[in-house]
Amino acid sequence: MRKCIAFLLLMLAAGGTAWGKGEKTRLVVGITVNHFYPEWLEMYGYGLLDKGLKRIMGGGGSVADYGYMYSQTGVDQATIYTGAVPAEHGIVAHEWYDRLRGGRQNDVADKEFRLIGEEGEGVSPNGMQALTLGCVMKMNNAFAKVYSIGANAEEAVLGGGSCANLALWLSDKTGKWVSSSFYADSLPGWLGAYNAKVESDHFIRRGWMPLEDEEGNLVALKLKSKVGMKEGFYYDLIQAKRKYETYRILKATPYVNTMVADLAGELVRQEQLGRDNDTDLLALNFSCLDYMNRDYDVRSKEFQDVVMRLDKDVERLLAVLDEKVGEGNYTVFLTFAEARELLPEDLQKVRVPSGYFSIFKAVALMKSFLGLLYGEGDWILDYDASQIYLDRALLEKHKIPLQEMQDKVADFLVEFEGVARVVTAHALTHNASAAGTGVLFQHAFSQKRSGDVLYSLQPMWAAELKDREDYYARYSKRRRVPLYVYGAGAAGLLPAECPMTALLPALCRLLQVPVPYTIGE
Fold it and tell me: Which residues pair with 61 in a beta bridge?
């Protein structure tokens, strides 16, 4: 018995020594930023704070490659936290056509659960088919805590995964933080008190103006903005809220990031994250103007203000972590999802040929073409996110071979200006590519969830949207993005260039837990 006690004390002492050397971390904080133009970090580097984004960037950076054709916020979030590509984790787009149910399936919507914090249909991560970082941590230590916060449900749910204690996002209806009954029966008491402050209304009353103008004459700023003077801007959020009757307008401002950072700090305090030897996870998702990120030039004052305010939010968050967890006791990684591309308007200024490709117009012409070729019928069942779904039941009824129809659609679509390559589901299912764009298509393709025909656009072309809130056709072709790691164990954690799927195995090694056997390193 004494030998057993002595052995345990020796093991604890050894563990304490390892802890003191910084070989283990108490808290992992994952930060993803949607619609961010990574070049902003250099463009506005002169104005960044030493203890904000610069501090994280100083820990060391890599160039990470998502390794698939279509980059979207939820798809990328799933890849980051599972270490798998869409073909494996199953999140191939914001939504896909579910052939068994005969309708669209949102990547997180789930009728089996309800919202908590307000009325409505709930969400869950059940659409994801892979273990997340939070799951790995919980499987190896039941006392680990896992929380996720995002502007929208999709990112919060997919970042937290199925093992999260709670995933939180900002409600468009109430401007308060809500969750799903998948995680709990009710919101914790401290969050109810936090929601009672209605922080959203405070920001709406303030309006959005440049950070440097907040202490100036608000009336003069409003007047300058109204007459179109270039040196500043002012957006009246009270009028916008009254017109659209939704708190979603906050997601098209940098204030939503401030709210995410504030809630993250409060959660660290209330849930005691990183306060013991059971390593915890906090997944955070920030946004760059959400559904309005295409409305401004990459060098606009609005985007500059987004970057500067995000920098202050990160500085404030790191200060909370220093105080409550302790500098050197936590690890932060920062990367970007659905990174912003240069749009045709940006490229035309430097005389680069570019344009918008409209899948809506292309499909309209395609339907006419198929009608002439095969007769009347709704041959195209659905389309979005660079995928076209054919009505397979109708094809079978008319005894038209599926492969033949897929090839006809592909041959027709590739003739459109702006389209770079078109592949069929048959080709992806029956052939394997060793390199090039073929691999990118394969990594994005799910035999059960993807369309019959997939296409990619030329590098300088962008997908046209139905309206600014259309997120089905919205995606990015930027696969390579910066990935920064700061804090405990950051040094040498990742090589200078790596696939994004390498992040999860690297974090598992840092946490001293087994890498899931379901993914390959």
Answer: 484
Domains of the chain are 23-205+248-341+476-511 (3.40.720.10), 355-463 (3.30.1360.150)
Confirm whether pTM is higher than 0.90: yes
What are the structure tokens assigned to 206, written together? 């303030």
Site of tokens 């929208």? 152
Kindly give, in sequence order, each residue whose CB lies less than 8 Å from that of residue 164, ignoring residues fewer than 6 positions away. Answer: 134, 146, 147, 148, 183, 283
Q: What is the DSSP track for 6-44?
A: HHHHHHHHHHHHHHHTT-S-SEEEEEEEET--TTHHHHT
Phi, psi of 317 (to 5 degrees): -65, -45
The residues, ordered by sequence, that sit 6+ positions from 348 with a Cβ below 8 Å of its Cβ are 354
DSSP state of 464: P
- Kindly state the tokens that stand for 332: 């932060």
CA-CA distance, 445 to 462, in Å (whole number)?
Answer: 21
Q: Residue 216: is its pLDDT beyond 70? A: no
Mean pLDDT, residues 72-79 taken together? 97
Q: Where are the beta strands (DSSP E) in 153-216?
A: 166-170, 177-180
What are the strands, taking DSSP E only, across 42-155? Answer: 61-65, 95-98, 103-106, 109-116, 121-123, 146-150
Strands 355-357 and 461-463: parallel
Q: With the C-alpha atoms ordered 77, 81, 85, 90, is the resulting torsion angle positive or negative? A: negative
Alpha-carbon separation of residue 213 from 234, 235, 483, 504 (angstroms):
10, 13, 32, 41
Distance of CA 504 to the CA centre of its chain: 16
List residues bridging with 337 in a β-sheet.
34
Query: Would you place residue 178 in the very low, low, confident or very high pLDDT band (cuts 50, 70, 90)?
Result: very high
For residues 170 and 179, the answer to whether their CB atoms sit within 8 Å is no
Confidence band of 14 (pLDDT split at 50, 70, 90):
very low
* C-alpha pair distances (Å), 466 with each of 55, 245, 356, 390: 40, 21, 12, 21
Give me the amino acid identity at 407.
D
Q: Percent of the chain scored above 70 by pLDDT?
A: 91
Other residues' Cβ atoms within 10 Å of the Cβ of residue 214: 11
Closest CA to 313 of 324, 321, 302, 301: 321
d(CA 161, CA 80): 11
Q: What is the pLDDT of residues 82-135, one digit of tens each?
A: 999 999 999 999 999 999 889 999 999 999 999 999 999 999 999 999 999 999
